[in-house]
Design brief:
The chain has about 425 residues and is mostly helical. The protein has 16 helices and 3 strands. Among the domains are: about 55 residues, no CATH class; about 160 residues, no CATH class. α15 runs antiparallel to α16. It starts with a helix and ends with a helix.
Length: about 425
């Protein structure tokens, strides 16, 4: 349909609003070009409305006020203060060895491995409380959960012969992240679409946080190098008095930036999702046949199995991120790309589950194997949920809405699983 034909259709249907909408949806670019050509030539309110609608541009502004800056500074200082606890206090905790319990001094390494969650997420939770003014009842509950979790992990004795402690360290940040998700939801805890928006927020968070981190790293390198030129070594003091505070403040600064300029960030994240989804589909199409015809044995090769699980989780995250970036109008190509990605990931997931079950029968139950099996089963169910949501819709719009609801509704199940791994699993394998 040429631009002139589109212009003729528009002029014929100036009072037929449904037909105009249909013409617009068939070819948005051509429709906009036709409207722009008619504007100023055809004196009609409908043309005027469409012209302003299609040419309305919002400036990406970064307007801030003093109160917002003070809040971010305060929360950054709070996170930094927690990160400096090993320097401020002489802490001790228990380790366990064959000879029994032993009291050791707290080193920075052991402190950060246990408490990275509580450096990051309390500030983020409080930020959204101040931003959205959700019920203080929820804030108290989330604060208590984080405090109890902190007391639990810091009182848990380290046993170098047990995998349980490592699993707790691995899952505690994810569990705390879900508490942050609850604070993001505010008073809309049951809204599945807002849950999906939270997942998208994290994609934006990673992109913006990565840019800020690399910029800060470049700035730090230049600063230290400039002082070295004049014979002053500031590297150690720079990190102790600036670097650690800057790193601790990075999460809350990143969320602040993402919140203030969402339009710019969404464009970048959508672009990344659109690029990598078909690329990963192509990679999996080539990888899966190669896997079956190679000497790969998931029943024996533990490292390869770990890599496949990482692939599994990463692709699942890409599926969710791609779907969260979809708007109301989605092309068949995008729908089919995500559908293909879901199917291929299901195959990879089933291979992982079969391999893990085989290792359980051959080598027995361990906390690691049980945890990985449970996580894979949860992801598999989620993928099937996504798959059936994508195929049962009558239109692309229905499919997108169905799958967004399915992902949002399923998210709390992961939280329950992480809580089981952290608080119940140690009792089973103590």
């Amino acid at each position: 349909m040429g631009s002139d034909k589109t212009s003729d259709l528009i002029k014929k249907n100036l009072n037929n609003y449904e037909e105009l909408e249909s013409v617009y949806r068939k070819d948005k670019k051509r429709f906009k070009k036709a409207i722009n050509s008619l504007h100023g030539k055809v004196d009609n309110k409908v043309i005027e409305v469409w012209y302003n609608r299609l040419n309305f541009e919002t400036e990406t502004t970064f307007t801030i006020n003093k109160k917002e800056i003070l809040i971010v500074i305060f929360l950054g200082l709070f996170s930094g203060l927690i990160s400096k606890i090993p320097d401020i206090f002489n802490l001790e905790w228990y380790t366990f060895n064959p000879e029994g319990f032993k009291i050791n001094d707290v080193t920075e390494e052991t402190f950060y491995s246990r408490n990275i969650s509580f450096i990051i997420f309390p500030a983020l939770c409080f930020y959204y409380f101040l931003k959205d003014k959700f019920s203080i009842k929820y804030l108290v509950i989330y604060a208590l959960i984080l405090i109890i979790s902190s007391l639990f992990i810091n009182s848990f004795p380290y046993d170098e012969n047990s995998d349980v402690f490592d699993l707790i360290l691995l899952h505690m940040p994810i569990f705390s992240w879900l508490i942050f998700g609850l604070s993001y939801l505010g008073n809309d805890l049951k809204d599945p679409l807002k849950r999906l928006n939270f997942l998208r927020l994290n994609g934006d968070f990673i992109i913006v946080g990565g840019v800020i981190f690399l910029s800060g790293l470049l700035f730090s390198g230049i600063t230290i190098s400039l002082f070295e030129i004049i014979g002053i070594d500031i590297a150690e003091n720079y990190f102790d008095y600036f670097g650690i505070w800057a790193l601790s403040s990075l999460p809350v600064v990143t969320v602040f930036v993402v919140t203030k300029i969402p339009d710019l960030v969404k464009k970048v994240s959508s672009l990344i999702a659109n690029i990598f989804t078909p690329l990963v589909v192509l990679m999996l199409i080539l990888y899966l046949p190669s896997m079956f015809f190679s000497e790969f044995d998931p029943f024996k090769d533990r490292d390869s199995l770990v890599t496949m699980n990482i692939l599994n989780i990463s692709v699942m995250a890409l599926v969710v991120f791609s779907l969260s970036s979809f708007k109301d109008l989605v092309s068949n190509f995008k729908i089919n790309s995500v559908l293909a990605l879901s199917v291929l990931t299901i195959i990879v997931n089933i291979v992982c589950i079969v391999a893990i079950v085989g290792r359980l029968f051959d080598m027995g139950f361990t906390p690691n194997r049980l945890t990985v099996l449970g996580a894979n089963l949860l992801i598999l169910i989620n993928l099937f949920y996504v798959f059936f949501s994508l195929v049962k819709g009558k239109s692309n719009e229905d499919k997108v809405l169905n799958v967004k609801h399915s992902i949002g509704k399923y998210l709390p199940i992961y939280g329950i699983w992480f809580a089981i791994v952290i608080f119940i699993l140690p009792l089973l394998f103590s």
